[in-house]
Design brief:
globular; 8 helices; alpha+beta; single chain; 19% helix; Elongation Factor Tu (Ef-tu), domain 3; Rossmann fold; 3 domains; 6-stranded antiparallel barrel
Length: 429
């Protein structure tokens, strides 16, 4: 098992792109190259090991998908001067909700594109969701260049991606763009290993680190929940998340704060990438075993976006005023106006929630490609703060809603930023 030194500064990164473009193959090539580099530390893995298709616990998730990543993979490795938390997220449209919550935990994103076909629908959507989650640093790896028939197509792909990244508020003009073939690099072809090694240098030196505040209070945002009893003990629960603020230590007493509950807990153990620690600082991705819960506590009430906090450190809210930007249809947005009363699925950090939009002032509707000030009322309490970025999805051409049924969420309709957090009207029960 590979472990990393906590003495080096932490960089969190995700690979994003359409399914089948070679994200997991690139990660495998990256690990293989790091394993051979002096001063670096990584455990080489095959694509099959990263996809975990042979794991009996995940067979059901893969039955509907003959190939490609379905469940996200978390990895940790070291470059010469940094330790890296790497998330290989799914590029499938049906898994975008899971991918969006993980993108809220990273500093940077590696866009992987198939050179033979160019960027596709999920490439664009994941770039926009990453930007909505606060990611402002992108690197592009144009993959499968060994089978690209038209070299001029690579220039077109690069130009298009620079424009898209600039369009979401990041620096597309100065974005690093690499052209390679991860599959060939993985087989040992030295010519194609060069772009992978260049990517390692970018991770090691060029991407900026996100500053985190390690002073109290402690805030841990949960993004993965294990509802079974850890160690078979009903008074304990296993969760994973990122330390947003402060530090957390073994034995510390915290409050587990959810949309409709709060419960005092104690931290029994802390793990980071299968290594146990006595404490963890801001920016760390950790797993926690919590104890002290009542036997009657219903684990099904746990939701992504719930918090672990020191007492009264943060309050959950469900109303806010935001500036919303509706994507144009050519950007993958909706084709019809948005009206007051429309429901959207909102991505807010690690949390997702259904919300109702009210235009300010109330109008005949907001057209795609425009900006609007709106009040959003969520159907659950989540952590909100001014300046927080968000993304939202709807049915593009209107909801595909069965009579009496829930909305069938479609593409990303827009992004936004919270201008003001409003007082609650929805009682917490």
């Amino acid at each position: 098992m590979s472990t990393t030194s906590r003495e080096k500064p932490l960089l969190s990164v995700a690979t994003i792109g359409h399914h089948g473009d070679g994200k997991t193959t690139l990660v495998a090539a990256l690990l293989a190259a790091l394993d051979q580099r002096p001063g670096c530390h990584a455990e080489a893995k095959t694509v099959e090991q990263l996809d975990r298709r042979d794991d009996p616990g995940f067979v059901a998730h893969y039955q509907a998908y003959p190939s490609g990543t379905v469940l996200p993979t978390k990895l940790s490795y070291e470059t010469l001067s940094r330790r890296v938390a790497h998330f290989d997220v799914s590029g499938r449209r049906k898994r975008v909700r899971s991918s969006a919550t993980l993108l809220a935990s990273v500093d940077s994103a590696i866009i992987v594109v198939d050179a033979s076909v160019g960027p596709r629908a999920q490439t664009f959507e994941l770039i926009r969701l990453a930007a909505a989650a606060g990611v402002r640093q992108f690197v592009t790896f144009i993959n499968k260049c060994d089978i690209a028939e038209d070299p001029e197509l690579l220039d077109v792909i690069e130009t298009e991606l620079r424009e898209v990244v600039s369009d979401v508020g990041a620096d597309g003009d100065d974005m690093v763009v690499l052209r390679g073939a991860a599959g060939q690099a993985l087989t040992g072809d030295r010519n194609w290993q060069l772009p992978v090694n260049t990517l390692i240098d970018v991770l090691d030196r060029e991407l900026q680190l996100t500053p985190y505040d390690a002073t109290p209070p402690t805030v841990v945002a949960l993004d993965i929940l294990h509802r079974r009893h850890p160690l078979g003990e009903p008074k304990k629960v296993l969760v994973e998340g990122i330390v947003r603020h402060g530090t957390v230590s073994r034995g510390q007493h915290l409050t587990l704060l959810g949309s409709r509950f709060e419960a005092p807990v104690a931290v029994r153990s802390i793990e980071s990438f299968h290594v146990r620690h006595e404490d963890a600082g801001a920016g760390e991705h950790i797993g926690l075993v919590l104890e002290g819960l009542s036997k009657r506590f219903n684990r099904n009430r746990l939701r992504k976006g719930d918090l672990l906090i020191t007492e009264n450190a943060r309050q959950l809210r469900h109303r806010f005023r935001a500036r919303l930007h509706l994507l144009h249809p050519y950007q993958g947005g909706r084709h019809t106006p948005m009206f007051s009363g429309d429901e959207v699925l909102v991505f807010l950090g690690s949390a997702t929630a259904v919300g109702t939009v009210t235009m300010i002032p109330d109008s005949l509707g907001a057209m795609p490609g425009t900006e609007v000030i709106a009040e959003v009322v969520l159907k659950r309490h989540v952590y909100l703060q001014e300046g927080m970025t968000l993304g939202f999805r709807d049915g593009c051409d209107g909801f595909a809603r069965e009579t009496g049924g829930p909305p069938q969420w479609s593409g990303t309709a827009g992004t936004g930023v919270i201008l003001e957090v409003l007082h609650d009207t929805l009682p917490k029960t």
